[in-house]
């Protein structure tokens, strides 16, 4: 099956809730690839003030906002499920925008790759939460059925001081 345009695969609410059961954000949270609002809604249900933007119009948040072209942060925290093909670009943009805390929902295989080895050694996340359950990410226009075969994880970066992200070895945990 062809991939969905711009990798639009809404995040299962359970996956977002598992992150929020283990991580907190101080201040507003920017969901910069909000799609149909799946993640934003869970963040809001947990009491967060959420800024929701997306490149495309999926009926939620502010559309026509290309995160990779943003010049200023809209919130001190970013929590998102970026298009996998530009996931590293999203993370690097978060660094450029001087975001305090970053949480990215990505395939577990994001850890692999010769290309990303240097990136991770220079910019290690502070925590990686491996999803014990395999979620199925469905396009917004499909009815979910079956069980997932792709392993996912939450990758978290946060500041350890002024203008510096943590550089130590990440903590690995299972959700």
How would you describe the overall organization of this protein?
There is one protein chain. This protein has 175 residues and is an alpha/beta fold. It contains 4 helices and 8 strands; from the N terminus they run H-E-H-E-E-H-E-H-E-E-E-E. Strands 1, 2, 3, 4, 5, 6, 7 and 8 form an 8-stranded mixed β-sheet that branches. Strand 6 (152-161) and strand 7 form a beta hairpin. It starts with 12 loop residues before the first helix and ends with a strand. The mean pLDDT is 89.
How much strand content do the residues show? 15-25%
Q: Label the overall shape.
A: globular
Order of helices and strands: HEHEEHEHEEEE
Derived from helix and strand composition plus strand pairing, the structural class reads alpha/beta
Mean pLDDT over the residues: 89
Tally of contiguous helical segments:
4
Helical content, roughly?
10-25%
Question: Would you identify the regions where 5 or more consecutive residues have pLDDT less than 50?
Answer: none
What is the C-alpha radius of gyration, as a whole number of Å?
15 Å
- Biggest sheet, open or closed, and with what strands and sense? 8 strands, mixed
Q: State the total count of DSSP E strands.
A: 8
End-to-end C-alpha gap = 29 Å
Specify the oligomeric state.
single chain
């Amino acid at each position: 099956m062809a991939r969905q345009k711009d990798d639009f695969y809404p995040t299962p609410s359970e996956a977002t809730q598992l992150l929020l059961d283990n991580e907190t954000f101080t201040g507003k949270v920017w969901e910069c690839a909000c799609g149909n609002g799946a993640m934003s809604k869970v963040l809001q249900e947990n009491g967060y003030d959420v800024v929701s933007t997306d490149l495309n119009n999926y009926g939620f948040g502010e559309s026509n906002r290309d995160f990779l072209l943003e010049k200023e942060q809209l919130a001190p925290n970013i929590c998102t499920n970026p298009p996998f093909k530009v996931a590293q670009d999203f993370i690097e943009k978060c660094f450029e925008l001087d975001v305090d805390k970053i949480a990215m929902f990505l395939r577990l295989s994001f850890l692999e790759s010769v290309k990303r080895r240097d990136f991770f050694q220079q910019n290690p996340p502070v925590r990686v939460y491996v999803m014990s359950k395999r979620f199925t990410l469905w396009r917004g226009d499909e009815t979910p059925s079956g069980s997932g075969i792709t392993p996912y994880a939450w990758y978290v970066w946060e500041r350890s001081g002024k203008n510096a992200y943590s550089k130590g070895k990440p903590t690995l945990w299972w959700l």
